[in-house]
Amino acid sequence: MKKIQISPSILSADFSQLGNEIKKLEDAGADMIHVDVMDGHFVPNLTIGPPVIKALRKYTSLIFDVHLMISPVHKYIKDFANAGADIITIHPEATDNLNESIKHIRTLEKKVGVSLNPNTEIDIIKNELENIDLILVMSVFPGFGGQKFIPEIIKKIELLKKIKDEKKYSYDIEVDGGINFANSKEVISAGANILVSGTTIFKENNGNIKKNIETLKEV
Known about the structure:
By secondary structure, the chain is α/β, with parallel strands linked by helices. It has a single domain (about 5-215), classed as TIM Barrel, CATH 3.20.20. The protein has helices spanning about 20-25, 50-55, 75-85, 100-105, 155-165, 185-190, 200-205, 210-215; strands at about 5-10, 30-40, 65-70, 85-90, 110-115, 135-140, 170-175, 195. Helix 6 (about 185-190) links the parallel strand 7 (about 170-175) and strand 8. The radius of gyration is 16 Å and the shape is globular. The mean pLDDT is about 95.
């Protein structure tokens, strides 16, 4: 089994202190930084764009795990790559040609992520699984932090792990949405090796980020 990694979502950070918040996450043992990008169109919320990511890049050498919840996504991929994203994750529904968007990310020498919403079937990406570095399974409907985990997605994680093992694919399985100490072990047991968490990391144990990251990693 791959080492469990934690990708804290800065959606729950203090936006007036983002640079310092990212430093705190790195010092506390975060494996990467999860950046949620929302356009107010594909999802009902607005967050940050390439200029902010570029400004934050100097604060850490950690991987920037950038989740693009924007549509149409293809024409913006290069902007996020140039801003400092290391992993670029897109939704199949947000591009006219998933294969072309995957190739585009590859030509920019970035890792390819594809995200599945709770109601998105695995079949939509089955022909691209060997070309994907990371599958982000959404355990809430994207748009806002602090939502409750949807337990039905456990079956999706298990199926992705089964396919991965049978076909000997190498993709990471990342899960985002309502991850907390109560469900993290179940998600890991199902096959996930990267957990995204915002509220739990920043708020639990009186904001003890290091302790929260370590607790989420426990199997």
